[in-house]
Amino acid sequence: MELQHNEFKAALAAGKLQIGIWSSLCSNIGAEILSDSGFDWILLDTEHSPNEVPDLLRQLQAVQRGGAAPIVRPAWNDMVLIKRVLDLGPQTVLVPYVQTRDEAVAAVAATRYPPKGVRGVAGGARASRYGRVTDYLKKADAEICLLVQVETRASLERLEEIASVEGVDGVFIGPSDLSASFGVIGQPGHPAVQEAIRNAAALIRKCGKAPGILTTNEDEARRYIEWGYLFVAVGVDTGLLLRSADALARRFKG
Fold it and tell me: Which of 20, 27, 108, 182 could form a disulfide with 233 if both were Cys (CB 3.0 to 4.6 A apart)?
């Protein structure tokens, strides 16, 4: 049995725009519905969602039939958390709160087997189809896509160092935390934050990496795409449910 090709990673390397959806509901049914909606990728969150490994497993099983590539965000840049996520089978991870080059290097190491990294070896994990994938341990590194999240002014100052790390495929800009770091919490649309977001895209691409971002504002999403962002999440499942449910209730309740 052959290892699955990471089409999301290949698309970023080719400079192809990838439109995604953020999933925070911790629901396998919700994730399954979203995975068939036509998005290129779906982010399963564990940093700001009460998702644990058994929950992730069910969601990954649910999205397997859909067309959206699963990306998992571990709760922290931690080799144990990353190892547990990768053993479940996703080939792309988004590591939050990367502040320095050394932290980016550590994230790379956590996603690679020795001698290139420190990922623990499991012979019969779901990632290798329980051992059925031929030479999984030798082939896995090539298909892993590592995205690191830059979300503070301090990390922006080191953006070129972070983005230049070998093994980092993309850099995700976190607009909400970035606005807090700029002293305008809750205002990612603030001119200073927007200028930083625009400059970040250009610098990330200059380093040969893919820039990514999340917004639930359609005008912002289109602007970010114009600025060169390559993987863009354009919605969050909790927000979609909330707005639709509230609007429906208002139409009948007044």
Answer: 20
